[in-house]
Amino acid sequence: MDCHSTQSTERPLSIASLALLIAALQLLPAPAAETKTSQATPAPTTTQSPITANSTDPALAVIRAMRHDAALADICFIDANNGWAVGDRGVICHTADAGATWHEQQSGATTNLSAVSFVDAQRGWAVGGASRPKLQAATRGIVLRTEDGGQTWTELPRLNLPRLTGVKFFDPTNGIAFGECAPLAPAGVFTTRDGGNTWLPAATDYSAAWLAGDFLAADFGALAGPAGQLATFTRGKVTHSPLAASSLRSFRAMRLAAPTGGWAVGDGGLVMTTHDAGRSWQTPPADLPAFATESFDFHALAVQGSHVWVAGTPGTRILHSPDNGQSWEVLLTNQTLPIRALTFIDTEHGYAAGDLGTILATTDGGRTWRPQRAGGRRAAILTFFADPADIPLELLADSGAAEGYLITTTTLCTPTARDSSGVSK
User: Fold this and answer.
1) What is the domain-level CATH number for residue 90?
2) Is 314 a member of any domain?
3) Which residue range forms the structural domain that includes residue 322?
4) I need a labelling partner for 119 at 20 to 30 A (CA). Which of 7, 25, 373, 392 fits?
């Protein structure tokens, strides 16, 4: 097929522009009104999902596929067998057999979930939130709770919270959540003593939003955020870390190790460690491989004793230190999608979760990884072009090669030869 006119030398820019618009729209998050769904073997629930696994409606099949491909932001295991992963569009996945099978639980939410915490095999919480640009409160937080291992999840009502990025519970009643700040809660940290029914804002001397944090007790921990922000949380008050090394890069994940150790990672290959529970932060004793600081943004972190694992974007490699940062080794994942969360049950058994619903597992400390759950069977970017010369190779290279997303490009016309004046022959 020849789409070039012999009377015109103009290129089909309008079609190229449309293709770029389609590509951009493909990268946008799903609307907040997604209908909840279940996988082919759903976990038991007291409510019937309107989207069943045997539905033949093509529209419902697309919704199921979108939820299956939802990015996973956090993963936790309460023992060797029981684990949960949460992510975009309110997706909650559960395994009761160490990841041999993962089933979607019905959260009843369409809001993106960013963190999950369980205190035993029955009682757990998941938090997240959404933007509300037209309202005075720019964001709205959500807290879900289960008391039966996730068979049923309940959104806790009447919570005036901003969007939350992290949560940790220490027992069925005492917990901490953190995220964005609000006029009446400038610290961006909230505590509960009744299982999440009510939340109290922490005290602080300044306003901040937090992207990462960890806590060793209900009144003791550390926080990290955009542009290198670091703070400690002690006795209900958030205090800026006065001895933290300065950085303009954002932190994305933090793990503390009793009694006073800890790690924090972030953009641009940022890795820092603390020996005083977050009052001061330093670079690790041994330098990271050069490619890590040049090509990686770190989003995920796990700590077990002296062992540290770090991962992010792209998800091709995971860094591991067996000796608290004295040395580093590079572990291959054999996949490219970004990794957003890591957790290790012990020094050998661990899990990684990330974009397009990916879950990986290792039983040898990260030396080998095998996929347990994978989305990505749909293209993340779909483009159509009339002329191959209009294909934005920079966009495809950045989203495909660098970030690991599937991309499909179709040319609608067969290229034709042009004479020296540019007119098609």
Assistant:
1) 2.130.10.10
2) yes
3) 58-373
4) 373
Among 175, 181, 221, smallest CA distance to 204 is for 181
145/162 Cα distance (integer angstroms): 17
Report yes or no: 113 and 91 within 8 Å, Cβ to Cβ: yes
Q: Flag the least confident range among 179-183, 231-235, 379-383.
A: 379-383
CA 201 to CA 186: how far, in whole Å?
Answer: 8
The answer to whether 350 and 359 are in contact (CB under 8 A) is: no
Q: Quick check: 393 pLDDT over 80?
A: no
Cα-flanking dihedrals φ and ψ of residue 57, to 5°? -60, 120
Identity of residue 390 = D
Rounded Cα gap, residues 233 and 148, in angstroms: 31
Residue 83 CA neighbour count, 13 Å, CB half: 26
70 found inside a domain: yes
Six-digit token pair at 77? 């295991």
CB 70 within 8 A of CB 357: yes
Token code pair at residue 33: 């009104």
Residue 241, in any domain of the structure: yes
3-class secondary structure, 259: coil
CA proximity to 203, closest of 182, 188, 216: 188
| Nearest alpha carbon to residue 318 among 346, 294, 338, 345 | 338
* Per-residue confidence (pLDDT) for residue 32, from 0 to 100: 36
User: Is 305 inside any structural domain?
Assistant: yes
CA separation for the pair 94, 43 (Å, rounded): 8
Residues 37 and 41: their CA atoms lie apart, in Å, by 11
Q: For 155-172, write each residue's pLDDT tens digit.
A: 999 899 999 999 999 999
pLDDT tens readout for residues 91-105: 999 999 999 999 999
